[in-house]
Amino acid sequence: MVQYQGNSGAGGGGEHIHMVTLDKTGKKSFGICIVRGEVKDSPNTKTTGIFIKGIVPDSPAHLCGKLKVGDRILSLNGKDVRHATEQAVIDLIKDADFKIELEIQTFDKSDEANKSNDPRSNGYMQAKNKFNQEQTSSNNMGGMGMTRQPTVRNDPKRGSNFAASTRVKHVPLNYDEDDEDTRDMTGRIRTQAGIEIDRASAGNCKLNKQEKDRDKETEDEFGYTMAKINKRYNMMKDLRRIEFQRQGNLPLGIALAGHKDRQKMACFIAGVDPNGLLANLDVKPGDEIVEVNGNVLKNRCHLNASAVFKNVEGEKIVLITSRRKANDEGMCVKPIKKFPPSTDETKFIFDQFPKARSVQVRKEGFLGIMVIYGKHVEVGNGIFVSDLREGSNAELAGVKVGDMLLAVNQDVTLESNYDEATGLIKRAEGVVTLILLTLKSEESIRSEREAEEKKKEEAKKEAEKPQDPATAEIKPNKKILIEVKVEKKPLGVIVTGGKNNFVKTGCVITHIYPEGAIAADNRLKIFDHICDINGNQVHCESMTTLKVHQLFHMTYEKNVNFTVYRADPPELEKFNVDFMKKSGKELGLSLAPNERGCTISEIIQGQYPEIDSKLQRGDIITKFNGDALEGLPFQVCYALFKGANGKISMEVTRPKPTLRTEAPK
How far is 540 from 655, CA to CA, in rounded Å? Predict the structure, then answer.
């Protein structure tokens, strides 16, 4: 655990609590590093919790401008994390979607005098060394010192407001103010030679007195020495500095690739053109490029690296690379051995965005477009055309305000920032090829959604309209009226139901004979519930089984109307009937095989008590001595039943419908 000692100024200290929302759409992470620690409010009081110990440059946390190193996180997405462990908060951040809402407690907000020297200031804080060196503040007036604590202590109960007392850290006599680099590492800075580089570059790395004495190398125009490079990237292997002269606008002749793990950002050399500028230099496939001319490429996408190379001014190029072992995992592709004559990184764009289009615009001093870095609901963050000069070549070529800029010539701008995109546009000459994607406006997206909802409502209303009974489709879980043409032909079904029947809640079809009128109509199925016939409800709870059967054995002149309910899933019950069959004694069952099994069409009483007491006409035998009967022909079923002796076990399926008829008046 890390202990943060409270800082106070002459005007008194205090705290400020505010809400911060971070959106990482289009980014790899939210960009905050956390640690469990404590703030000493006074000599006798401490505040423990989760604190921000680092902010990644150009991340959502950095760009929002509302977070500082040393801020305390009180809650995350509404969950109180004041007493949570560091790992628990990390898990919450990993489980979050693209947005997190933080409740932040900022200490000493009123102390503006020390703000510029406060190591908690918004931005990247360089990693501390890992050799147990005491971490002290360079500001004697209460800098935020950090010391190791052996245990995690609970947050003491106290009010939301407190006063932070002045606490001066004792600085030992042998302390060197250069030992600790707590500068803001975001943005750009100029070297002594006047070259602009990233603040996080190795050229801006700070050496302590001993390191300076050992470093006999003179800094180049980018501020590089091998001592500074090794210190800046001390966790990376086999660091190398490669220098060469670029010849005009000729390509470098290298292919780039990203990290094998899609959660990590890196820029690897995938191949080197044997005829390119780097062919005879100390580079090979698998090397990771971490910097070029003071521009940091570590933790950046490889697609963005080519734009960075194009933006580099001057003929001299200095690469900082890290060479990994052959078996180290890293690069997402195998090394390119046969280097193509030319590479076009824009080809994949049309696979990712099939509606993208290529537009050629002749640049005559200017293209006539203005761009912004923004966000669209369809594609997320990117570069968009914000304005067009009236009558310009871009307007005449069909460029539209709101188009997303995907590439300039062969340079992809999908992950470029504003400066990189405008740099590509400014340097482009002659006929410039732009790859654009026309996006729908939010109004048109909203209109399409409303039209889709309206279409669904109309389809729903259409489905609710009454259908012609002669052709009506039977839909699950809904009462449907159908008309069956019979013309004095038998209906040809077996049904179950009646007050003296095991099924008393409804009349259900359990077999359909292929020669009957219902089979010819081809709409009714086994387990369909018949609620009424010709408008007369089938009250099984008050009608005998015989009367129910007679309804389906009557001769009807022309047509019969049925109200049908098809339950999905079917309403059934299953049970077993076990008994001993004597040799030579028949079962006393007449069976009608179908796709569900064998339906009992008749029972001869007095054969076996188990059959007489448990089975009835209309029951379906689905298994016989463990053998499934679904879909078996009559001959096979007959042989199974005829040849069986001894112990018999039958699985029986019986309808168990819900009562859907009104009680008779």
Answer: 13
Residue 182 CB-half CA count within 13 A: 23
Average pLDDT value for the chain: 80
Helix axes 418-427, 302-311, angle to 10 degrees: 50
Q: Distance (Å, rounded) from C-alpha 24 to C-alpha 58? A: 11
Which tens digit of pLDDT belongs to each residue from 218-258? 999 999 999 999 999 988 888 999 998 876 445 678 888 88
List, for residues 21-56, the tens digit of each pLDDT value.
998 877 778 889 898 888 777 777 788 899 998 888
Give residue 599's identity as a one-letter amino acid code.
Answer: T
Q: How far apart are the first and last CA of the chain?
A: 80
pLDDT value at 370 more than 70: yes
For the cut 80, the answer to whether the pLDDT of residue 313 exceeds it is no
- Ordered by where they begin, the domains of the chain are 15-107 (2.30.42.10), 195-204+219-323 (2.30.42.10), 346-444 (2.30.42.10), 478-566 (2.30.42.10), 572-654 (2.30.42.10)
- How far apart CA 108 and CA 120 sit, in angstroms, is 11
pLDDT in tens, 115-133: 444 433 343 433 333 333 3
Distance CA 439, CA 604 (A): 76
Tokens of residue 517, six digits: 């009128």
Could you tell me which residues come within 8 angstroms of residue 454 by beta carbon, excluding any fewer than 6 positions away?
Answer: none
Q: Which stretch of 400-404, 430-434, 480-484 has the lowest confidence by average pLDDT?
A: 430-434
- Residues 640, 624: contact at Cβ < 8 Å? yes
Dihedral of CA 444/448/449/453: which sign? positive
CB distance 152 to 48 below 8 Å: yes
Tell which phi-psi region holds residue 498, choosing left (phi > 0), alpha (psi between -120 and 50) or beta: left
